Amino acid sequence: MKNTNHLVIRSISYHLFILGFLCLVTACNNSPSEDKTSIPETEEIVKVNNIYWNVKAILPDGKSLDVKAFDEEGKSFDIKAIENSDQNSFLDVKAIGDSEELPVKLLLNDEQFAPVAAISDEGNTYEIKAITKEGEKLDIKGIRRFGNIVIMKGITKEGKYIGLQAISPDGKQNDIKGIKVNRGEREMTLKGVAVHAHVKAMHPAANEAEFKMFKKSEINKKRKYTTDFKRIIWNIKAVTTDGKNLDVKAFDADGNTFDVKATQDSEQHSFMNIKAFVEGFELPVKIMQSSDAHAPVTAIGKDGTIYEIKALTEDAIKLDIKGVSRSGNIINVKAINQNGEFYGVKAFAPDGKLNQVKGIKIFDREVEMKVQGQPVYAHLKAINQ
């Protein structure tokens, strides 16, 4: 009898185990799979080997002059723009030595024109010159500022300006320009050296040939940035796959909405600030450092308050705007709909011109800077790309 009872108990236990196992398998199969989630994965970025673009001064007859940096002993360094990703619209410019790559900057001074130099790890500055076929060294300077852009030129012995370009091995051309993120004359201090602007190789802008440069008689005046340009406000929109433009707004913690605009504050519109207009203040809009797969885009208040930046659908649904992937110095910014699809974000001028809204990294580090204590991953700009 005992054996019979043991067999019955063992049989019941076995069937209960099988039933529990089947329930567990069924529950696992019914759980949400990764493929069905609405969270988009970060886009893959094409990896490329460094491509070095030659930096040249271009004479009126089309001939080119080498551009070099020189240390205090006369040793020369090649000047190159470096393409290190699948974009070539915003490239670093470096002085290339035997085993080092030195940043190239426009330096702060009290003169009308800003000198250009490479800065060593020890804080030494190496002047940058264009070299004629006779071996003469021509100055290269930051000639005039237009908003966030400083136009750079070589200067002949006769005082004439010559353009500066980066030329890729396959013949593509970028302009060499100074880039400013800060409004003031001083951009930063690097290795103890006061910097006026960062030097980058950028796609040529359509209207820069029309910009008025200072005359030779004005060269000795002290530099002080002023402009009488009448500001132009560009609208920021998220563009759906079927061509609809969605408003982009800033939201405070109470749900109040504020305009987000690109501001054209000078003749140039290839590199413009994006601001949130909040109760009489223009707040900077940045991509924030985050451990999330996609980096949030926010405005930062005077006291460090965060304002979320969202796109609004016709049904008043708020869509996240995020930095979704990085291509070298460019962060691709997208609005993300309920299905996890990406929408482009663009700036529209009143007369129909169009810029891309992108994140810009000046430095090769995770936190670009801090604004009111908030860690910034990249600056949000409206750029010609």
UniProtKB/TrEMBL annotation:
InterPro entries: DUF7486. The chain crosses the membrane at residues 7-27. Keywords: Membrane, Transmembrane, Transmembrane helix. Residues 50-202, 230-383 form the DUF7486 domain. It comes from the Bacteria. Pfam families: DUF7486. This is DUF7486 domain-containing protein. It comes from Aquimarina rubra.
